[in-house]
Write a structure and sequence with these properties.
By secondary structure, the protein is an alpha/beta fold. It is 42% helix and 12% strand. It has one domain: Rossmann fold. It is built from ten helices and seven strands. The two termini are 26 Å apart. Pfam families: adh_short_C2 (PF13561). It comes from Streptomyces lomondensis.
Length: 304
């Protein structure tokens, strides 16, 4: 089917840029109506002060074949989230896919700073943005998602449960945030499974987000120019890759087999048969363990 999600309604919370935008666009490409939220609009920017907007994301969803609807939302404000869900209920009468991709921590965490040296206010705000927002959104959205059987909740994080369980991730606050989101999917799996819905945690690999490309001083068109300085960046992937993973999950009539599980874009690609935009299938988390963390020279042979 060219539009397997036609008639389905999705909410991608945190879709201004990065993985959220890639997920929203691929859900649109599969025919879904996609509500996209964030704090940066064409009229007002968040503290990120970046040019990407939720209206731009909505336009990309529509151009891909779906229907994109931008709704400015601060997911730390329960009243705004409640109003968002009420609007979806009024306009659509259903919610089939909820993607919690809210993050907002790039400007707040300090690389390799131990807890006692890290700015406490920044660390606590990071936890609020990365964890509390997911809980607030699910609290208000899940009753609507449960109106119809077969709903899907995707908790987007960084790292699989296996990898994060064995590796310290950046610092105390970052590690705790990403582990918490993994556990959210596990807990929701227990609560949603008996009620006919599915919850999963999903991680992209090394994501070529807008911010990451800017950090390395490259664009998507010439991203390989960064490999001289960051050789292992060769395993990186576009945000559309994890988007295709979500679209595949949402279209799978047997998606319940994944309930409560920790998944990755690279791990799902061979199962569902999708690729990244260049036709490759990067498997970043296997690469990190077997090549990068093992201290071997960068070589993606057999990993993409």
């Amino acid at each position: 089917m060219s539009a397997p999600l036609k008639g389905k309604v999705a909410l991608v919370a945190g879709a201004t840029r990065g993985a959220g935008r890639g997920i929203a666009v691929e859900l649109g490409a599969a025919g879904a109506t996609v509500y996209v939220t964030g704090r940066t609009t064409r009229e007002r920017r968040s503290e990120y002060d970046r040019p990407e907007t939720i209206e731009d994301t909505a336009d990309l969803v529509t151009e891909a074949g779906g229907r994109g609807i931008a709704v400015p939302t601060d997911h730390l404000d329960p009243a705004q989230v409640r109003a968002l869900v009420d609007r979806i209920a009024d306009e659509q009468g259903r919610l089939d896919v909820l993607v919690n991709d809210i993050w907002g921590g790039e400007l707040l965490f300090e690389w390799d700073s131990p807890l006692w040296e890290h700015d406490l206010d920044n660390g606590l705000r990071l936890l609020r943005l990365a964890v509390e927002t997911h809980a607030v959104t699910s609290h208000h959205a899940l009753p609507l998602l449960l109106r119809h059987p077969g709903g899907l909740v995707v908790e987007v994080t960084d790292g699989t449960a296996e990898y994060n369980g064995a590796h310290y991730r950046v610092n105390f606050f970052y590690d705790l945030a990403k582990a918490s989101v993994l556990r959210m999917a596990f807990a929701l799996g227990h609560e949603l499974g008996p009620r006919g819905a599915t919850a999963v945690a999903l991680t992209p690999g090394w994501l070529r987000s807008e911010i990451m490309l800017d950090t390395y001083g490259v664009r998507e068109e010439n991203w390989r120019d960064a490999l001289e300085r960051v050789p292992h960046f060769a395993i990186s992937e576009t945000p559309r890759y994890v988007g295709r993973a979500v679209a595949a999950l949402a279209a799978d009539p047997d998606v319940a087999r994944w309930n409560g599980r920790s998944l990755s874009s690279g791990g799902l690609a061979p199962v569902y048969g999708f690729t990244d935009l260049d036709g490759s299938r990067p498997d970043a988390w296997r690469y990190l363990v077997e090549v990068q963390d093992a201290g071997k020279p960068a070589d993606t042979t057999g990993y993409r």
